[in-house]
Amino acid sequence: MSNKSNPNRRIALQSTPWLMALVLFAECSGNHQKSDAYGNFEAIEVTISAEASGKILRLDVQAGQVFEAGAVVGQIDPTDLAFRSAQLLAQREAGASKIANIQAQIDVQVQQQQNLLADKARTQKLLQDGAATTKQLDDVNAGLNLLEKQILATKTQNNSVRKELAVYDRQVEQIEDNIRKCRVVNPVAGTVLNKYAEAGEITGYGKALYNIANLSEMDLRVYVSGDQLPEVRLGDKVEVLIDRDKKTNRSLEGRVSWISSNAEFTPKTIQTKEERINLVYAVRIKVKNDGSLKIGMPGEVNFVKTSR
């Protein structure tokens, strides 16, 4: 029978290429290899808080700025602290003047003691020659005993004042430390993520000013099943995949930096082939950031299979 005489056969032959294409597409889709684990990129965020209370005179911070550790980025008004420091220094100076007066009293008493000791020596010699009485010697000894107690009491008073001065010194040091803390110093190198305060605002101790994170190396937090866990070792190099476009991925090199020792239920944010009820282990992958990685960005991991 010819094709011309059978229209149904002509339709079947014409549709054959489309059917073959659909079969090939289905086969290719079925052979697409899934990654071993999925997750999102994270960075250690550090929130910088005020270490003093007062008006913010300046805060030279904007989101996206990169700072080195130790950079001075702001200033809180230290005027009140400066006044308190000056007051304490004046009180200390007044206390220090007492030291000179007390020392002068001690010098006088010591001189009196030397005079009485000389009188005692003379009285003892006169007593041996019969020119003095025992009572005269007893009076000299009594005067010496009284003077020794007076000197001891004066020295005790002197020590008390010195301790008072030491308290002033510690208070001044504390205020000077608080004045230094009025400077906002960036503690870690990184990129500013958010700014929470502005110059001219009144801040308080512990109030957040901005947060910062080191984005030069980021963590990809993924979750693996118990079956995959034996293939994951600390320090292993892995393949990290990120989206290049809607259809293709970019491959980066990562390193396993942390493996959780406790199992947990699969987080809702993670899409895997297994049931969500399955227990998984969190794993962190360190990845060098060439500028394309962002916090919260999804990523995939393929663990390198090696013979152990």
Average residue-wise pLDDT? 84
How helical, in percent, are the residues?
25-40%
What is the helix tally? 3
Percent range for β-strand residues: 25-35%
Intertermini distance:
66 Å
Rg measurement, Å: 43 Å
Note poorly predicted spans: 1-5, 7-32
Order of helices and strands: HEEEEEHHEEEEEEEEEE
Main pleated sheet:
6 strands, antiparallel, barrel
Structure report:
- The structure is a single chain.
- The chain has helices at 7-30, 79-129, 134-181, and strands at residues 37-42, 45-49, 54-59, 66-67, 72-76, 183-185, 190-195, 202-203, 208-213, 217-225, 237-243, 249-259, 264-265, 279-288, 298-303.
- It has 308 residues and is α+β, with helices and mostly antiparallel strands.
- A six-stranded antiparallel β-barrel has the order 1-10-14-12-11-15.
- A hairpin with a 5-residue loop joins strand 11 and strand 12 (249-259).
- The longest helix is centred in the middle third of the chain and has 51 residues, at 79-129.
Topology:
Layout: H1 7-30, E1 37-42, E2 45-49, E3 54-59, E4 66-67, E5 72-76, H2 79-129, H3 134-181, E6 183-185, E7 190-195, E8 202-203, E9 208-213, E10 217-225, E11 237-243, E12 249-259, E13 264-265, E14 279-288, E15 298-303
Antiparallel strand pairs: 1-10, 1-15, 2-9, 3-5, 3-8, 4-7, 5-6, 7-9, 10-14, 11-12, 11-15, 12-14, 13-14
Helix pairs in contact: 2-3
